[in-house]
Amino acid sequence: MQNAALLELGLDYLYVPLPVHPSRLETAVAGLQACGFVGFNVTIPHKQAITSLMDRLTEPAQLAGAVNTVRIEPDGTLTGTNTDIGGFVQPLVNSDWQGKTATILGNGGAALAVAIGCRQLGFEYIHVCGRDRDRLYAFCSGNTALEGVKPLLWTELDRVLPRTDLLVNTTPIGMVPTVEESPLSTENLSHLPEQATVYDLIYRPRPTRLLERAIGRGLRGIDGLAMLVAQGEAALEFWLDRPAPAGIMARAVQTLN
Ligand code: NAP
Question: Does any ligand 1 atom lie closer than 6 A to the CB of residue 116?
Answer without folding.
Answer: no
